[in-house]
């Protein structure tokens, strides 16, 4: 589990699509006076333990706003 501090653009802008798809659940809660959004992914059908929680990311307000800006840049809102 990790709380995202910052997003840094990778130097290498090439990539390939991952061969499997997973579900991602989300929840929001307050911790020590800070609102957090938590994203949990679960193992794909091809994993040793399918459906088991695999990765967790937590975003505070600043990290969430940074991610929204990245997503709006990648997928500009329709006009």
Highlighted features:
79 residues; alpha+beta; four-stranded mixed beta sheet; 4 strands; 18% helix
- Put simply, the count of helices is 1
The gyration radius over C-alpha positions equals 15 Å
Rounded mean pLDDT score? 89
Indicate the overall shape. Answer: globular
Low-confidence stretches: none
Q: Kindly, what is the distance between the CA atoms of the first and last residues, rounded to a whole number of angstroms? A: 37 Å
Helix and strand element order: EEEEH
Q: What share of residues is helical?
A: 10-25%
What is the percentage of strand-forming residues?
A: 25-35%
Biggest beta-sheet profile: 4 strands, mixed
Structural class: alpha+beta
Sheet with most strands: strand arrangement = 1-4-3-2
Strand count = 4
Topology:
Elements: E1 2-3, E2 24-31, E3 34-42, E4 53-59, H1 61-74
Parallel strand pairs: 1-4
Antiparallel strand pairs: 2-3, 3-4
Describe this structure in words.
By secondary structure, the protein is an alpha+beta fold. It is built from one helix and four strands. A four-stranded mixed beta sheet has the order 1-4-3-2. The mean pLDDT is 89.
Quick gist of this model?
This protein is α+β, with helices and mostly antiparallel strands and 79 residues long.
């Amino acid at each position: 589990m990790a709380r995202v501090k910052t997003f840094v653009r990778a130097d290498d802008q090439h990539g390939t699509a991952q061969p499997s798809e997973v579900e991602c659940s989300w929840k929001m809660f307050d911790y020590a006076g800070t609102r957090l959004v938590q994203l949990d992914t679960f193992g794909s059908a091809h994993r040793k333990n399918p459906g088991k929680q695999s990765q967790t990311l937590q975003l505070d307000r600043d990290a969430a706003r940074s991610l929204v800006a990245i997503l709006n840049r990648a997928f500009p809102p329709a006009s």
